[in-house]
Amino acid sequence: MDLTLTEDQQLVQSTAREFLAGRAGADGSELWKEIVDLGWTGLALPEDSGGVGSDFLDVCLLAEELGRAGVATPFTPTVAAALAIAEFGTPQQKQDVLPAIVEGRTIALARGHWGAEGSDLTATPAGDGYTVDGRALFVPFAGEAAELLVIAGTVVALVDVSTPGITRERLDVVGNEPMYSVTFDGVSVAAQRVLADGVDAVTAYATVLTCAEMVGGAQAVLDMTVDYATQRRQFDKPIGTFQAVQHHCANMAIDVLGSRFATYEAAWKLDTGQDAGTEINTAKAFVSDAYERVCALGHQVHGAIGFTAEHELHRYLRHATAAALNHGDADFHLDQLATRLGL
Amino acid sequence: MDLTLTEDQQLVQSTAREFLAGRAGADGSELWKEIVDLGWTGLALPEDSGGVGSDFLDVCLLAEELGRAGVATPFTPTVAAALAIAEFGTPQQKQDVLPAIVEGRTIALARGHWGAEGSDLTATPAGDGYTVDGRALFVPFAGEAAELLVIAGTVVALVDVSTPGITRERLDVVGNEPMYSVTFDGVSVAAQRVLADGVDAVTAYATVLTCAEMVGGAQAVLDMTVDYATQRRQFDKPIGTFQAVQHHCANMAIDVLGSRFATYEAAWKLDTGQDAGTEINTAKAFVSDAYERVCALGHQVHGAIGFTAEHELHRYLRHATAAALNHGDADFHLDQLATRLGL
Amino acid sequence: MDLTLTEDQQLVQSTAREFLAGRAGADGSELWKEIVDLGWTGLALPEDSGGVGSDFLDVCLLAEELGRAGVATPFTPTVAAALAIAEFGTPQQKQDVLPAIVEGRTIALARGHWGAEGSDLTATPAGDGYTVDGRALFVPFAGEAAELLVIAGTVVALVDVSTPGITRERLDVVGNEPMYSVTFDGVSVAAQRVLADGVDAVTAYATVLTCAEMVGGAQAVLDMTVDYATQRRQFDKPIGTFQAVQHHCANMAIDVLGSRFATYEAAWKLDTGQDAGTEINTAKAFVSDAYERVCALGHQVHGAIGFTAEHELHRYLRHATAAALNHGDADFHLDQLATRLGL
Amino acid sequence: MDLTLTEDQQLVQSTAREFLAGRAGADGSELWKEIVDLGWTGLALPEDSGGVGSDFLDVCLLAEELGRAGVATPFTPTVAAALAIAEFGTPQQKQDVLPAIVEGRTIALARGHWGAEGSDLTATPAGDGYTVDGRALFVPFAGEAAELLVIAGTVVALVDVSTPGITRERLDVVGNEPMYSVTFDGVSVAAQRVLADGVDAVTAYATVLTCAEMVGGAQAVLDMTVDYATQRRQFDKPIGTFQAVQHHCANMAIDVLGSRFATYEAAWKLDTGQDAGTEINTAKAFVSDAYERVCALGHQVHGAIGFTAEHELHRYLRHATAAALNHGDADFHLDQLATRLGL
């Protein structure tokens, strides 16, 4: 058992932190270009695809720093798709897509029958390939993406966003990520664009990366709250000298550390090819709740000042509430955990 | 012990509910005019001041309906000020202010040394009256009000907003109510505008009215969530048939009913002239947390659809988070309760 | 709306409190005799049955004081049965049973198909009456009772404990009340011992009385904890001067007061013949959880001293955990509440 | 990062589990003898002291299995003392004590000024050594131990229990461990029995071992609850098919896994000589609450059957409530965490 970062991992982390400092609210496409230039999208991809061949854990460290910095990028869906393609794609698919991702191509995940969201994608066999119909609601970055990784039942396929029959409609949502409804009307998918498998893989990678982003966000809220508690004075002493405020902050710290343990354990199991199902369900259910608790306590310590519109607490609260639903809410993961327990 | 509404109270409630239906987001000044025409601002004021002489409980029923409808008005500060003036004002003060309030004059509460908000008003004796200096942060409706009820230490005084030395600056906050920072720079207050007393009274009335608004808001969230659970289908049946969703809704209902009990018990004690301190602390601490729990569960049942920008859940979540801080957050009231327990 | 006690109710309360002071752990049968002599079992029964004709609320005040004193008696099942008989019994049944209850006869409630407990009583028509078979698990005071009120499906009947075919086996349970498994092997019940109705009534009365006992127990835990916090010193000052301990006690006080509101609202609705279903479900679910929270915080404030075997905290924790299950646990009442919400 | 068990660790775990199966409630001294014969007390001690030289993590695995089996032994205080002596003892002290511990000598920890428990040990310099006075309350296994590790302020010393001036009084507590009040009346401690240091070390080892025991206990409660949910039928199907029961069990599983992460992270930091303070505070605060939540949900799923006196749930609930206080309750560790956060 060994949970500290290696020197390389520390370098990944500190470089990312430095690069992202003060970038909250940065222009998305410009930031994405810089991220690509830094090589982040290829970090865990094989070297023969133009990647660096690092571990998935290193990618999680980047996701954590993105969450900490409060920036919204297509990093998670793009990398989750890339890792699934690297694992289950044909040589041709890998050659077509992976180097392009290393160079900055973005991918969004369009999924059917996911949770309560009204997605109802179907893939009907047609010739060697499939015809995809239906609608995927709440697809982050679908409008910005060059390609969609479509998941309909057990079918996973790459689809260019310009394929006839695809309509992407921007939704007006509360949240930091651009969100789309994507409609498929008789969209043809050729056999050579269908992956051998990958539903579970893309789900696992995307869920754990989302958890890592949340860990980073929760850490940022803890940091700004402790900082505020030491500076803000009331009755002639810092509010951080009141035991109630101290315990609020300590409880936040416990939730942040617990979230980090759960997330990196799941990441490590994934990385080493073990069955990570229990750890992923545990991480998503725990971290989703913990991040919301951290934001609530952060707001309580900040008091009314936290409600001024420009306060960055809002960005994190929006992130927490949206990310809690991404890739399954608490009820969804509790259901899965119960099944794993034999119930 | 008797907690049902009288016929008169039922009439107040149903009339208000009908009037406010569909008014969420209505233009504030137009709505206020209609509210005044309906006689709400004078409902609990003495008849010789132009009021109706009803109970404070009736006013709470109106506040609950305002919260339920999701509208933001200066009702709570105006009525809390009016009731304190009716109780502690001189005959001249009553004559000057109460009939005007019945006719629609609005009053904002500018308070010093309240919680962690940086307010630091001081009232220094000057001649027969006082000079008020300092700043009151987070004063709802200060920009719209005609008068301020200034609370600085034990001094309570009426101050016209046009008095030299007063600056009102709109704050950009997340929340439904317009919020202001009000600065006092050597503001002269004549003796005849100072109330005999009233700090506790105005605090008590404003706190309980705020609780009543929150009860109404929580009820609205419960109603829309149950409604959604019966209509939204997943796996070919309404999501309200899942036991997890049923229990979420049942837990929301318990919080709403518990909040209503706590609030009306405090209101009733106030109405009958009993010491309501314990009940007010209990109500504010319990209802603040309960409303936030209700919103969180409402979001969980709604899933991603609750994050579309036009969804009215947001209005209530903003209300819950802002109202939780108004007139003291949970820590503030826990401190007071502990004192009442002898600790 | 009016929740204060009348003078008569205050007298009931203070007399009971004085009588019960220091009786925790008293010999059960001696205590029961005194309770009967005080007229408690007949308090809410009609005068023509030898009772006093008081309200159900007064009986709840007695149950609260019994819970507060930490004594275990057959008061709740006996009075719940008596009230149901007074409401749904034939004149002959009333005459047979009610004066006897006023004189001290005790009744236990043997119920089938209740929760997860393995009870499976059936009542099969036989002649004019029924044959009862099966087993009722966890029947408090069945061994001490003179009669059983048997509830099997929609059948409610009085059965003498000496009727052939009845076996009562004492269970070794953690809890303050003597608990029995009662087996029915072809037990004949004559038509004249069957009530016209009463399943809902006896359930409602017993549930609310159980809530009242829990309110009393929670109040006792709060009182002893505040007392300990003011006396016990650490680092040369009372532990009650630490904000964390103050907030623990304040949170306990909120739970106690909220429990009292919920319980007495349900009692009052029952008393006035209104549909009290929502209030009863709310009370049982809320109070069960609140009492356990109060005991947990009480233990935290007391620290290790609370674990000495003779400490009276244990009595209340046992009461809280057992009473949380009596007449349906939280899941049971959440299910019922969801049904009332239309889910 | 790597959290799976090595083959050696898996062997330690499976051997311990097999050995302890069915030993709950076993005679303590006989069990201790067998544990010693298995070499557990020397597992992490240096080979030149007769130990095996394994990691502290391996010892934690044993503590987890002891907690899982529901047995109470002096393993935690004895091993914590041994590890501190191995780290901070003189060569002579090591030679005197460590081989004896390997052979079965037991040590209890007598600590002053710990939490709210009334302990007030003082060590006054006297000659080359100290005179110890005062009382240590709630010392587990003090009556069975051959030696005490006395911690008074910054002084850590080994004291034979037969030293004149020492009185050990058995306390009658609710809990599985025998508990004592130990009084010191002018007890002389020679210089050669005083350790160079070790307050923090013995605290850290004992706290983490206690967490490991709690992890094991929580796992046992989860296992028996899932087992019950699959076997117990209600309305003709296993109760484990109800979503509410499934979510209770899944929430228990999350708490167990989160507790294990937190505990082993702290253990691993200790093992590798890093500053483990934050991890220890996090683990003790989190695991204490989590274990109590697990027991509460276990009771809810079991229903009344869980209250039969012989049900093993009680053993674990007693363990959870007692262990939550050992080595600092949640408030204590929140205070320390706040300090580490700079508050």
UniProtKB/TrEMBL annotation, chains A, B, C, D:
Q: Which Gene3D superfamilies match?
A: Acyl-CoA dehydrogenase/oxidase, N-terminal domain, Butyryl-CoA Dehydrogenase, subunit A, domain 2, Butyryl-CoA Dehydrogenase, subunit A, domain 3
List UniProt keywords, sorted A-Z.
Answer: FAD, Flavoprotein, Oxidoreductase
Q: Which residues form a coiled coil?
A: none
Q: Which residues form the Acyl-CoA dehydrogenase/oxidase C-terminal domain?
A: 208-341
State the InterPro entries in the record: Acyl-CoA_Oxase/DH_mid-dom_sf (IPR046373), AcylCo_DH-like_C (IPR036250), AcylCo_DH/oxidase_C (IPR009075), AcylCoA_DH/ox_N (IPR013786), AcylCoA_DH/ox_N_sf (IPR037069), AcylCoA_DH/oxidase_NM_dom_sf (IPR009100)
GO molecular function list:
acyl-CoA dehydrogenase activity; flavin adenine dinucleotide binding
Tell me which cofactor or cofactors this protein depends on: FAD
User: What range(s) does the Acyl-CoA dehydrogenase/oxidase N-terminal domain occupy?
Assistant: 6-104
User: What protein family is recorded?
Assistant: Belongs to the acyl-CoA dehydrogenase family.
Q: What is this protein called?
A: Alkylation response protein AidB-like acyl-CoA dehydrogenase
Native source organism of the sequence: Herbihabitans rhizosphaerae
Taxonomy of the source species: Bacteria, Bacillati, Actinomycetota, Actinomycetes, Pseudonocardiales
